[in-house]
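Same chain as my last thread, 359 residues:
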Amino acid sequence: MTGKDGGIPKAVAPGPEAVVPGPEPASASAPTLETVAAEAGVSRATVSRVVNGSPKVSDEVRAVVQAAVARLGYVPNRAARSLVTRRTGSVALVVSEAEMKVFTDPLLAAMVRSMGVALSARDVQLVLMMVRADNERQRLTGYLLGGHVDGVFLMSLHEGDPLPRILHDSGVPVVQMARPLGDVKLPYVDVDNVHGARLAVRHLVAIGRQRIATIAGPPDMVAGVDRLDGFREELLGARMADHRVAFGDFSQSSGEQAMLALLADHPDLDAVFCASDLMAAGALRALRRHERRVPEDVAVVGYDDLDVALLTEPPLSTVSQPVEAMAATMVDMLLAQVAGRPLPSPAILPTRLVLRASG
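reply #2:
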């Protein structure tokens, strides 16, 4: 193959790589742009364009260069690449929760894992950041605005958090998990929480339950608000009372305490819809303490369909949300912004009801 890159001859002055002067130091154990170029039979400039993801290379030449990179085991110099692309090759995931909750909540853990996998396939590093206190938020904001990351994912946001506004006004690429509650309109990915809750309640009505309660999520989080709305809408359509409501924070302990409160106030209830699987697991513990059989006395339906739903006794009927698809969609939306493409439209993914032995 001669020194051409889809119509660009070798004699053409180098492109973006020219801002990194001089050849890379040679090393027997570290292939350079020059050795890759010689292996592929193209110019150093062409190799740099391929490595930096430039579209100004033909598919044929790109394949030849990538094959040479693989054969030689070439690893790009990230520091030099960042001078060329003005990118860091990393994005931040900001979770507005304490560390303990991040690592014990199966939904948060599954999202972090799925995002990491999706980003790794794109050669982008994920930086996990957790924040609760104001002093932590100030330090984190300085980091995010300081050019250390190319974009930001926001997850588990609570109403009134100033970070979405700050990032929006600063022009930082952002994608939020969940529909924004405030007036800042950011690109986001969510599931149809209202419909998911309606599916759960519709099933409980269909199996003959008459006194249905809910353990709702926090009223300052969109998942808590939307799932409670879905619960109430479906009961309204069935002409049933919707006042059997207790609140939790999506944790197992809060679900147990909320279930105890519901049993104290409504001892005749015969079904409960829980806004998370962890809260449903806590509700099952409370029902056992009160010697209520599930599902014979009280049917229970959760929300998430993560591993915990299979580990409860009995296994949990639940609303399934596509965690991996959510993570992949968020990654696509953020990296599109980083690449300078127009702001993406919000993505609302579907849910489905998974029936097991609890109701």
